[in-house]
TrEMBL record:
<feature type="binding site">
    <location>
        <position position="229"/>
    </location>
    <ligand>
        <name>substrate</name>
    </ligand>
</feature>
<feature type="binding site">
    <location>
        <position position="146"/>
    </location>
    <ligand>
        <name>substrate</name>
    </ligand>
</feature>
<feature type="domain" description="Amidohydrolase-related">
    <location>
        <begin position="55"/>
        <end position="379"/>
    </location>
</feature>
<dbReference type="InterPro" id="IPR011059">
    <property type="entry name" value="Metal-dep_hydrolase_composite"/>
</dbReference>
<dbReference type="GO" id="GO:0046872">
    <property type="term" value="F:metal ion binding"/>
</dbReference>
<dbReference type="GO" id="GO:0008448">
    <property type="term" value="F:N-acetylglucosamine-6-phosphate deacetylase activity"/>
</dbReference>
<comment type="pathway">
    <text>Amino-sugar metabolism; N-acetylneuraminate degradation; D-fructose 6-phosphate from N-acetylneuraminate: step 4/5.</text>
</comment>
<feature type="binding site">
    <location>
        <position position="197"/>
    </location>
    <ligand>
        <name>Zn(2+)</name>
    </ligand>
</feature>
<feature type="binding site">
    <location>
        <begin position="308"/>
        <end position="310"/>
    </location>
    <ligand>
        <name>substrate</name>
    </ligand>
</feature>
<feature type="binding site">
    <location>
        <position position="218"/>
    </location>
    <ligand>
        <name>Zn(2+)</name>
    </ligand>
</feature>
<dbReference type="GO" id="GO:0006046">
    <property type="term" value="P:N-acetylglucosamine catabolic process"/>
</dbReference>
<keyword id="KW-0479">Metal-binding</keyword>
<feature type="binding site">
    <location>
        <position position="135"/>
    </location>
    <ligand>
        <name>Zn(2+)</name>
    </ligand>
</feature>
<protein>
    <recommendedName>
        <fullName>N-acetylglucosamine-6-phosphate deacetylase</fullName>
        <ecNumber>3.5.1.25</ecNumber>
    </recommendedName>
</protein>
<dbReference type="InterPro" id="IPR003764">
    <property type="entry name" value="GlcNAc_6-P_deAcase"/>
</dbReference>
<dbReference type="InterPro" id="IPR032466">
    <property type="entry name" value="Metal_Hydrolase"/>
</dbReference>
<dbReference type="InterPro" id="IPR006680">
    <property type="entry name" value="Amidohydro-rel"/>
</dbReference>
Length: 383
């Protein structure tokens, strides 16, 4: 049985950093075997990796990612998902929800069929597909964002019936006819119902929350904003125990808003996401999202109209951004991209912690928090 030892590394636990520690894991067992505050013996391992004073964290988890490396989940091919998984792994992501778009129903079903088949078969060569995030088509015509308004549908369960095994999260507008019924059905099946692309009022969300909605998709973007007499969805997010997604690319919102959101909601209620599209990992230029032309320039992805169209953010960059613009601790920042999404997906019992018996999804960062190595189920990802 092949065992690997990472030594001379700062171990990022959920509540503290263990300086100059070491960690032993099995490439065959796919599990973490020992976590130590000292240097474990090299004799225990078949391979020793010198962390050189960097940081070791659990693998990052992205619950809102459309594409990367020139490919999109809506292409509905195993090759597309595999390329996306490789781009993500190169940036420290070890698990993700392949995220769909509001497009014709046949296209959505083709993408879901593909995700289902890939997850059930040999998987991907990079980050693991943990399921899918269905972003639309149950959205508001008033808050389309970069989605296809002509492909909207009113909330109904029929579209989802053959895919309950892979759907982990559904973004929908809770004010639409049929939304409450769908939210209740999702709740029964332990699927996250998330408010997004929505014209909902504060009161609309209260009704949805009572039915089981407990998450907000890319908070602030494509939803009703905060007004002191009309709190809207943003106000509802802060006046609830729901979790919120935050895109910390310093483009979707001002850095002061990122700081305020984390302070107001609390670290445990914030999940960092990329909302990355096919240009992620590539240079500026012209790309596509949901059948629409996207221009990427200076790190921002926009439709020709100027509307933001996802991002080219990676989660490791989001970590570095927060290290720069906040006074949060490293464990607090890392938690928002590891334990928090794992907990939301009900996977915190086996993922996202440096503990013996947990899955060996690991990221070795240098001292500047640039990814050095990514390990997925104990095996090193080689880009």
């Amino acid at each position: 049985m092949t065992k690997k030892l990472i030594k001379n590394v700062n171990l990022v636990l959920t509540d503290r950093i263990v300086n100059n520690g070491s960690l032993l894991f099995g490439a065959d067992s796919q599990q973490i075997e020992k976590v130590a505050s000292y240097q474990l013996s090299a004799a225990e391992a078949d391979e020793v990796i010198d962390g050189q004073g960097g940081y070791l964290t659990p693998g990052l988890i992205d619950i809102h990612i459309h594409g990367g490396g020139g490919h999109d989940a809506m292409e509905a091919t195993p090759e597309a998902l595999d390329k996306i998984s490789q781009v993500l792994a190169a940036h420290g992501v070890t698990g993700f929800l392949a995220t769909t778009m509001t497009m014709p129903e046949a296209d959505i079903k083709a993408a879901l069929d593909n995700i289902q088949q890939v997850k059930a078969s040999s998987g991907t060569s990079g980050a693991a597909v943990l399921g899918t995030h269905l972003e639309g088509p149950f959205i508001s015509p008033d808050y389309i964002g970069a989605q296809d308004g002509n492909s909207r549908l009113e909330p109904e369960v029929e579209l989802l019936e053959n895919y309950f095994d892979i759907i982990k999260l559904v973004t929908l507008a809770p004010e639409r006819s049929g939304a409450i019924t769908l939210i209740k059905e999702l709740k029964k099946r332990n699927i996250i119902a998330s408010a997004g692309h929505s014209a909902a009022t504060y009161e609309d969300f209260q009704a949805a929350a009572a039915a089981g909605m407990d998450h907000f998709t890319h908070l602030y973007n494509a939803m009703t904003g905060l007004h002191h007499r009309k709190p809207g969805l943003v106000g509802a997010a802060f006046d609830s125990e729901a979790t919120v997604e935050l895109i910390v690319d310093l483009i979707h919102h001002h850095q002061a808003v990122d700081r305020f959101t984390i302070k107001a909601k609390g670290v445990d209620k914030v999940i960092l996401v990329s909302d990355g599209m096919e240009a992620t990992g590539l240079s500026d230029g012209e790309y596509e999202l949901g059948g629409q032309k996207v221009i990427v320039e200076a790190g921002a992805a926009r439709l020709e109209s100027g509307v933001l169209a996802g991002s080219v953010l990676t989660l490791d960059k989001a970590l570095r951004n927060l290290l720069e613009i906040t006074d949060l601790s490293v464990p607090e920042i890392v938690k928002m991209a590891t334990l928090n999404p794992a907990r939301k997906l009900g996977l915190e019992h086996k993922l996202a912690q440096l503990r013996a018996g947990y899955q060996a999804d690991l990221v070795l960062f240098d001292q500047d928090f640039t990814v050095v190595k990514t390990f997925i189920r104990g095996k090193e990802f080689l880009n």
